[in-house]
Specification:
The protein is mostly beta strands. The chain is built from 1 helix and 29 strands.
């Protein structure tokens, strides 16, 4: 049975209310930082996210629901506005594990819960598969290399080996210093370009801009983009600008497509953001004393930095980290760095698994009495196996149905999608 890694909004709202109720008292007591909409500038403090300031900004991968978990923070999204890659209004039912999102809102003083005022989700690529290399762990889309890791989730395809040249896929992921993408989620959109009814998409840095008649021509990675009089353009296209491009699926020449929409969206911190948490791969790194970028966003190390699962000497281009700190003069001054090694293991106690779901468990067969089975938490199906899954706080397969639990899980290849296997199940207190 394929694992659902794309929950419905009604199933996700249940746990939102469960932890939001006690949080309301914290709001009344003034213990939560103000939302971005309240404005304010960045200060000079190097304190971590969750202390002082006016608004927070987060970029990262959705690793769980309870409400929505990004960079280890659980954001209540019950009142958040949600938009897609076209800036069109969407709903929380569109959010899925492995998607890359931008969150604006606030983080509480505990540093692990917060409130989202807006959530934007977007993919890095949507286009045709031009090569698959299972041995190297890569798939090439639009001529752009996409690296697959043990934690990359697949939907509607069994995994990397299930992809074929000519398939149309949507790739969520993080760019590296050379322009390749480390995939966090890959969705099979169609088995061929002819069977695909939508538009292609690409994001990246403009290069080789020339004026044509009509329109303009430029490159984003390996794709040549041609605009014309019908192209909707937002912002000024210049070399070095970061753009989101929606393309007609019919190529007008080799690796050349007509743009339906181009939006310039440089990677800068918006006014009113004083704190930020950015997940991504490092680029433009020269030394620990010089500025660099994380997922394309400007950053530099603060005077006092805490490191988790690594040290300052481990910082280099293409190293994946979560960087947290305050925004000063448009730069993230980092106070904490967490290194991410794409591990797909639960650790000795099952608690280090990369995915997490908090909510009421519903057994696929009631009761969950067999040694192996599956439960649904927040609309996501998670398998368990008593030989490998650790049960804590009195939870057993016999009383699992209806229990409010916290589940840690790892990814596994499935027959049609990625499946999730619980490494630890405990009561959610």
């Amino acid at each position: 049975m394929p694992t659902r890694i794309h929950p419905t909004s009604s199933q996700r709202e249940e746990t939102t209310r469960s932890w939001w109720t006690p949080l309301a008292s914290l709001l009344a007591a003034g213990l939560v930082t103000t939302l971005v909409a309240c404005g304010g500038g960045g200060g000079g403090s190097t304190a971590g996210v969750g202390t002082g300031g006016t608004g927070s900004f987060a970029v990262g991968t959705i690793s769980g629901f309870g409400s929505i978990i990004v960079n280890g923070v659980r954001y209540d999204d019950s009142s958040a506005s949600i938009v897609d890659d076209d800036d069109s209004s969407s709903s929380s039912s569109s959010l899925a594990i492995g998607q890359v999102v931008e969150i604006r809102g606030s983080v509480n003083s505990d540093g692990v819960t917060g409130t989202a005022s807006s959530i934007a989700y977007y993919s890095a690529l949507k286009g045709p598969v031009t090569a698959v290399n299972v041995g190297a762990g890569t798939v090439t889309v639009f001529g752009q290399v996409v690296n697959v890791t043990p934690t990359t989730l697949f939907e509607d395809v069994s995994g990397l080996a299930g992809l074929a040249v000519g398939n149309v896929v949507e790739v969520y992921g993080l760019p590296d210093a050379g322009g390749a993408i480390t995939a966090t989620r890959i969705e099979l959109e169609a088995t061929s370009i002819g069977a695909f009814g939508g538009d292609f998409r690409i994001r990246g840095v403009v290069s080789g801009l020339v004026v044509t008649s009509p329109g303009q021509r430029f490159s984003v990675g390996t794709v040549t983009v041609q605009t014309d009089n019908a192209t909707q353009i937002e912002g000024t296209i210049v070399d070095g600008a970061f753009v989101r491009v929606r393309l007609d699926k019919t190529a007008i020449a080799a690796d050349t497509y007509t743009a339906k929409r181009v939006k310039v969206k440089n990677r800068v911190y918006e006014s009113g953001v004083s704190k930020a948490e950015v997940e991504g791969l490092i680029s433009e790194f020269t030394s620990s004393s010089a500025p660099f970028k994380v997922n394309g966003y400007p950053a530099q190390l603060g005077t006092s930095v805490t490191y988790e699962d690594g040290a300052v000497g481990d910082l280099a281009d293409d190293v994946r980290i979560e960087a947290k700190g305050v925004v000063t003069n448009g730069v993230l001054v980092i106070s904490k760095v967490e290194f991410d090694d794409d591990s797909n293991e639960g650790g000795s106690d099952g608690n280090d698994a990369p995915f997490e779901f908090d909510g009421v468990a519903t057994c696929s067969a009631t009761p969950c009495g067999s040694p192996t089975g599956s439960i649904v938490v927040r609309g996501v199906t998670v398998q368990y196996d008593t030989a490998t899954t650790r049960f804590d706080d009195g939870v057993t397969t016999l009383n699992l149905n209806g229990a409010r639990v916290e589940v840690k899980a790892i990814a596994q290849s499935g027959s049609g999608d990625t499946t999730l296997l619980a490494t630890r199940i405990e009561l959610d207190n």
